[in-house]
Here is the input.
Amino acid sequence: MNMKIGVIGSGTMGSGIAQVAAQNGHSVYLIDTSQQALDKAKMNLSQTMSRLVEKAKISADQATAISTLIHYSTDLNDLSSCGLVIEAIVEDIKIKHTLLKELETIVDKDCILASNTSSLSIASLGAALNFSNRIIGIHFFNPAPLMPLVEIIPAVQTSTFVLEKCTELIQQWGKSGVICKDTPGFIVNRVARPFYGEALRIYEEGIADFATIDWAMTHFGGFKMGPFTLMDYIGNDINYAVTESVFESFYFDPRFKPSFTQKRHKEAGYFGRKSGRGYYDYTEVAELLMPNENEEIGKLIFNRILAMLINEAIDAVFMQVGTSEAIDLAMTKGVNYPKGLLKWADEIGLPTILERLEDLFSTYGEDRYRPNALLRKMVKEQKSFY
Ligand SMILES: NC(=O)c1ccc[n+]([C@@H]2O[C@H](COP(=O)([O-])OP(=O)(O)OC[C@H]3O[C@@H](n4cnc5c(N)ncnc54)[C@H](O)[C@@H]3O)[C@@H](O)[C@H]2O)c1
Here is the structure.
């Protein structure tokens, strides 16, 4: 499938997606309204290629071939003969609509139009098009050349042909593609919410400090980073915005309720690593925060957050957002979880997970802790996911 690929938006995501397509032999047109952004993308790619050659990951000839396959332009008309165009511009529905409408006047009728959006519905983007059966979500993770996961999201309008063609293409590009329903947060940004939300809640209740909660998740769970370290890495501004958007999109379901602690950190400009201060202090004079390595508290924290994550993963299966396999693959390949959550649930035993959730639900009396109906049903029928 050696079609010409268009990528619009040459920022963090667009430039990475263009690299992935070029590495797979496609001629790529990378478009941006800003010449400065294009120059930066070109410079970054050249540095990346030099690094890959230095590390002997690719030859100098391959690096030249990849670089020459990417054409940088501010003119949308250059996309006229593309078979697939992926937009990765600013996350604004009005701006995306204007772009898609204009794009449709340039490309052929059978050109697939994809969006890399993280939070907008694919159906709402397709509504801008005359031929809306060509819209699809192709959601890469940052950095696109390194992260193996790609969520493929058909909208209600998307044709089977478009879905099949994109699934095949993503597989050819060596990525792990998972098909998911056009629902808020798709798989990863939905299922991962309790990793942050429940950690913040545990902190707010005064059960433990940031360092202890992080220690519990890395020590007992084998997560590469604890929730607070990870939120500081992602940026509290970005992470809070995703939480708020998922909460609103789910009609204010208390499961996704944002936290005042994170809001205040964001308001204070404590974004995390990028601002030098988040939950932790990243300046040179900072004192290292040490966890309280109390095994009992650590296990309690880990069991509570994991039960909430598993409940969310089960809800995603129940609501047919994706298959069990797709959800486990998404969490291990998209956010590096040490194990698929449903496989983990089987290992611990579904009755134990249900018991932990019922405990939380009866202690707090909050809807946020309600065990999922599918979990109850599976326990009753003595079933497991695998
Ligand atoms: N950053 C992430 O971690 C991440 C991960 C997955 C998905 N996304 C999604 O990818 C998209 C892009 O995010 P990003 O972080 O790469 O943004 P970014 O700000 O780094 O880049 C956006 C680029 O789009 C350009 N642009 C804006 N309007 C344009 C237009 N009308 N036509 C052409 N170019 C235009 C800007 O000049 C800029 O260079 C968003 O939809 C975002 O939700 C982001």
